[in-house]
Specification:
The protein is 29% helix and 15% strand. This is Integrase p58-like C-terminal domain-containing protein.
């Protein structure tokens, strides 16, 4: 039985419960002349059963939709974007179509409906596409204040940060921010991410200030 409709798909289609082989065999043994029905009676009862089942399914489905909507609204907040704002777009990855990542930033060109916005298509063609706001995320520009955290030192001394080479055209995988965090904590986390975008790039970086040597044992093959 499907919880949203209160009935199984078989019952919604045929107007009766699915019978097993044992039930069919039992009906053959117990069948009598009184149980036989003419075609008109069978069709009339089938039509009445289907009409009753469909009415119950529609009512149960409406109740399930209202319950799901109330649960979703309790954990969501209204969002809006402005024309000209920079956003990230959630699209399938170019390497794996089953995975999605945040690409951008791109500019919001127009608000189509209260929940959809028109933006550039992230393929360099210059065309426009309408996206739902759930597929858009605000892009925060990098500021000077986010770079000061590298100058702070703790009780264990300063932590060296080596410059890396990373292309701004590569895909950036933005981490998901937990909704249970406070507003101040979310802001601090966004600033930390924006100051370290090279860490979240799918393209490995490179530094010239440190090297790592891998030493093998003789001529033995470590892994084949």
């Amino acid at each position: 039985m499907q919880s949203s409709t209160g009935h199984s798909p078989f019952e919604l289609l045929f107007g009766r419960q699915l019978r097993t082989l044992f039930e069919i065999l039992a009906e053959q043994w117990e069948e009598s002349e009184d149980d036989l029905k003419d075609i008109l009676t069978y069709m009339r009862e089938l039509k009445e059963n289907l009409h009753k089942i469909w009415e119950e399914a529609h009512k149960t489905l409406r109740d399930a939709q209202e319950k799901q909507k109330a649960h979703y609204d309790a954990h969501s907040s209204p969002r809006s974007l402005t024309v000209g704002q920079k956003v990230l777009v959630l699209l399938p990855s170019t390497e794996n179509k089953l995975l999605a990542c945040w690409l951008g930033p791109y500019t919001v060109l127009e608000q189509a409906t209260p929940t959809t916005y028109k933006s550039e298509i992230p393929n360099g063609s210059g065309r426009e596409q309408i996206y739902h706001i759930n597929l858009l995320k605000t892009w925060y520009e990098n500021t000077e204040s986010t770079m000061d955290m590298y100058k702070t030192t703790g009780s264990e001394g300063s932590i060296p940060v080596y410059p890396t080479e990373v292309s701004t055209e590569t895909e950036i995988i933005m981490p998901q921010i937990n909704d249970t965090l406070l507003v101040e904590q979310k802001t601090q986390l966004r600033d930390l991410v924006q100051g370290s975008l090279d860490v979240f790039s799918k393209k490995p970086g490179r530094t010239h200030m440190i090297q790592h040597h891998i030493r093998t044992i003789g001529d033995r093959v470590a892994r084949q």
